[in-house]
Amino acid sequence: MLVVRDLVKRFRDSGRGMVTAVDHLSFQVQRGEIYGLLGPNGAGKTTTLRMIATLLDPDEGVIEVGGVDRMKDPLGARGKLAFVPAEAGLPDRLRPREVVRLFAEVQGVANPRKTADALLERLGAASFADTPCSDLSTGMKRRVVLARALVHAPEVLLLDEPTDGLDVPGRREVLGLVREQAAEGRAVVLSSHIMGEVEKVVDRVGMVRKGSVIAEGTLAEVIALAGTRDLDDAFVALLGEDA
Question: Please, is 241 exposed, middle or buried when counting C-beta atoms within 10 Å of its C-beta (0-12, 13-18, 19+)?
Fold first, then answer.
């Protein structure tokens, strides 16, 4: 469902010159699978997700989303995916019902009003559908952002630190929603540095160090490779001083 091969992205830094943020990074995600893209801050995870989501253009590499070449047909690829960034990015003055309905209209969804209301209901946000976004809790904002992302029934879901800023109940709720998306057949990429929550939902993980995947496999395979007892220790063992 999602193929990323030999992805490269370079930036010019005023102090360091040309910096390679993503360095020939590769991974694949199947339908119904949750793939954990793991690494410390600055490892290139968000840059990778932004390139897949067509928000940044790679310098090299191949990205295929649901069989669509993202470089040759970025609009076609974008129609098959949804990107949920770490920041909510909701307009303070709009209400969740208005936000989700607007995105449904932009995506050309049939009956956007009905679709928006149904999604908000399903994600547990219906009772706040007419509350200004500025008055929503962090957890409720995450629900609205997820509804906004799912409004066009994407085949691939990209999640960047989806539980950032949430309390324990909020984290559990969001992770439950993530599992539901995979159960419905979506390919999910979950970027996070919180190993405890990753262990609860992912099927496979890719450890990213300095823009490259240095270890990949099931949780058991990666933990065995690191020679540790849990993913937290494996993270430190494999990533060394960058962890």
Answer: exposed
Q: Where are the beta strands (DSSP E) in the chain?
A: 2-13, 17-29, 34-38, 60-65, 68-69, 81-84, 156-160, 187-192, 204-209, 212-217
> Tokens in use for 133?
């976004």
Strands 2-13 and 60-65: antiparallel
Q: How far apart are CA 104 and CA 201, in angstroms?
A: 28
Q: Which residue has the tokens 């419905």?
A: 184
Task: Give CA–CA dist 34/182, Å, rounded.
Answer: 6
Cα 237 from Cα 16, distance rounded (Å): 28
Q: Is the pLDDT of residue 88 over 80?
A: no
pLDDT of residue 205: 95
The rounded mean pLDDT for the chain is 91
Please count the CA atoms within 13 angstroms of the CA of 102 that sit on its side-chain side: 10
Residue at token pair 């270890």: 215
pLDDT tens digits for range 14-38: 888 899 999 999 999 999 999 999 9
Is residue 219 helix, strand or coil?
Answer: helix
DSSP 3-state of 34: strand
User: Treating both helix axes as pointing N-terminal to C-terminal, what angle do 138-150 and 96-106 enclose, rounded to 10 degrees?
Assistant: 20
**Res 213 pLDDT > 70:** yes
Average pLDDT of span 103-112: 91
Q: Which residues of 143-174 are buried (b: 16+ CB within 10 A; e: fewer)?
A: bbbbbbbbbbebbbbbbbbbbbebeeebbebb
pLDDT of residue 242: 66
8-state DSSP, 60: E
